[in-house]
Amino acid sequence: MQRIIFWVSLGLVAYVYIGYPVLLWLVTGFAHDVKPSDSFRPNLTVIIPAHNEEGWIRKKIANTLELDYPSDRMQIIVASDGSTDKTVEIARPFASAGVEVAEFAQRVGKQEMLNRLAPEARGDILVMTDSQVLLRPDSVSMLVRHFANPSVACVTGKRLCILQEGVVQGAGENLYWRYESWIKESETRLHSCLGANGQLYAVRRSVFPRVERVGEDFYIPMKILATKRLRVIFEPKAISMTPAAANLRIEFERKARAHVSFLLTLSLLKELWNPGHPVWWQYISHHVLRMAVPVAMLTALVSSVFLAKSSVFFRYTLVAQLCFYALAFLGYVFAKLDKRPKIFYVPFYFVFANLAIGQALLRWPSRKYDYAWKRTERIPVS
To answer: In Å, how far are 172, 188, 214, 299 from 335, measured between CA atoms?
Structure first.
């Protein structure tokens, strides 16, 4: 029984992080998608949620105004969620450039702001982008060209982290998002990628769902997938750039919050548990099973301790696991010194990410979480 437990645990970890992405890539390697229409230019509404963003909002608005999209077809809304600083004061003078400010005096949360703004928006396509994110000029054009295909309901862009000297967490975020982008490209070719990058994504307003108090960038596209079975597309040429979280502690908390949010959606997306759904396999493999990886890692380690007493092979497997965690610790030490040799950094970030999942699993049943959307403090860039 201990041997079975060990191999099932190790097999789960290997399948989630290696087996599923490779199998998905092999299955979709020869698939061809419908080409987007570069001339498609629908009316759109760009929504920029903001809560106390006086240090970022001027740069964000200026960046949005530089998008190479026809200004007469683009509505820009800065949605202030109970800001108590100068966010609104800074944003209002941009009215002469066509920027609108939706001021919510009391904080209602990002999700409720979207629920109120979406029905009143003038655009057929809603584009959501965070206030601490800089967009390349063609990013929105790259997104909306896919909506010429009526089967497409949501398009998400590619996230890049702005690397800065001495910022440990930046390299880890980029490493993680390169890996996720590879998976999303393959999922798109099969049917749909799962979820969106909150930094930049677009949704067809006619199918925009009511947003529950969970992470909206995952819930919105997944709810559309679950109920409408329309497609969610990943567009790697739609680039958004964001600074790293201010420190590893904040990055850890951001990840843990995101995982708790996902766990809360399990009961809201019951349709995706049906094996007949087009993305059932992806949903289970990419997201549901990933939540079990920290438990599987711990189980594999503990079972190896018991099995090592009676088997040379399992003594080696125990030593191998202990060496991996030692490399992870050295990766943390090197990262603090602003050095990131991959042999150390990859194990470190893998363990770091799964510790955040473990934290989320502990918070979920104990209800030690906050439903409100919280901004992630990020390092300023020039």
So the answer is: 10, 34, 32, 28
263 occurs within a structural domain: no
The torsion angles phi and psi of 34, rounded to 5 degrees, stand at -70, 135
Question: What span, in angstroms and rounded, lies between the C-alpha atoms of 56 and 132?
Answer: 6
Amino acid, single-letter form, for residue 333: V
Give the HSE-up count for residue 140: Cα atoms under 13 Å, Cβ half-sphere: 28
Q: What is the pLDDT of residues 127-166, one digit of tens each?
A: 999 999 999 999 999 999 999 999 999 999 998 877 655 5
In a domain, 74, yes or no: yes
Pairing of strands 99-104, 74-81: parallel
- Give CA–CA dist 281/13, Å, rounded: 16
280 backbone φψ class: left, alpha, beta (φ>0; ψ -120 to 50) = alpha
Mean pLDDT, residues 288-298 taken together = 97
* Helix/strand/coil for 346: helix
Residue 129, token pair as written in the block? 């982008």
pLDDT of residue 372: 46
**Residue type for position 7:** W
pLDDT tens-digit map of 8-43: 999 999 999 999 999 999 998 777 677 899 899 999
Specify the number of domains making up the chain.
1
Nearest to 254 by CA among 370, 374, 363: 374
CATH number at residue 238: 3.90.550.10
Strand order of the β-sheet with 74-81 is: 99-104, 74-81, 44-50, 125-129, 200-204, 152-162, 231-243, 134-135
**Residue 232 belongs to what domain range?**
44-246
Q: Report whether 124 contacts 204 (CB < 8 A).
A: yes
**Model pLDDT, residue 368:** 56
Token representation of residue 326: 């030692």
